[in-house]
Amino acid sequence: MNTQLLQWLITTGLDEQRAQVYLATLSLGEATAKEIADTVGLGRTAVYDNLRVLEQRGYMHTLHEGKRKIFVPLHPKELYKKFDQQKQQLKDLLPDFLALYAEEGKQPFVQMFTGTHAAREVFEDILAVTKKEYCYLSPQNLTYSMVDKAYMKTWVARRVKKGIQSKSLRVKGRDVRGEAIFMEEEKYLRQIRYLPAYVDLKSSIYIYENNIAVISTKKESAAFIIYSPDLAFSFRHIFDFLWNVSMKS
Question: In this structure, what is the dihedral angle of CA atoms 156, 211, 103, 165, given to the nearest 10 degrees?
Answer without folding.
Answer: -40
